[in-house]
């Protein structure tokens, strides 16, 4: 009988530095199953455990893009290819990808919020025609915070993209917050056949959601992902609870009609 709380010892296959404080590790996860937008719990013995979104995955492996901002992530940052990391999951409800099939998909992501949508966007890139069109607004604080530089180039070739920096100027990037560029997405050309995905820091998701509603986008067409401190990941500890909602079970992906009510 499978114990959903039991972590599996996994070998690190690759370690890639993304920025000064962010890195992506590719881990051999064997037969662990995952869906786009789900998260896993990563742990080190005698150190601790932390929830991390799966940024990409394939046959027998998963990528995790991590920011070194705490006890566990700082220690993971010191690991190398060949070292062991413990993984359990995947958990939660991911993006409703099947609902996006044949539609015009608009993805608005900020900073490390690009990680939870990366595997889904790569699916759209690899399965030509799955989505009618893909429109991406991806924003970063500054030039030093840009993630997935090689992947961004691929997306730029295949999709309608707007890459932004909050305050820096750089070739290939616009300057300003992502909310500034939502009005440039041709929603009127999509008719009723579109869905919108928003993920990033809470303040960014809040104002991006409000801007989308201002543009006349129905709330039921907007999807967001909550990044919260989850400990057990199976709805027992209550760390991620907002009112009566357990984010680890009912999320982290929520429709905006629900998400707008989830306020701490």
From TrEMBL:
Checking CDD domains in the record gives: sulfite_reductase_like
Positions annotated to bind [2Fe-2S] cluster? 232, 237, 240, 248
Question: Could you tell me what the cofactor note in this record states?
Answer: Binds 1 [2Fe-2S] cluster per subunit.
List membrane-spanning regions: none
Q: Name one GO molecular function term.
A: 2 iron, 2 sulfur cluster binding
Keywords, alphabetical = 2Fe-2S, Iron, Iron-sulfur, Metal-binding
Set out the biological process GO terms recorded for this chain's protein.
pyrimidine nucleotide biosynthetic process
Q: Where is the FAD-binding FR-type domain?
A: 5-97
Q: Name the coenzymes or cofactors required.
A: [2Fe-2S] cluster
Q: Which Pfam families match?
A: DHODB_Fe-S_bind, NAD_binding_1
What is the protein name given in its UniProt record? Anaerobic sulfite reductase subunit AsrB
- What species was this sequence derived from? Holtiella tumoricola
Mind giving the lineage of the organism this protein is from? Bacteria, Bacillati, Bacillota, Clostridia, Lachnospirales
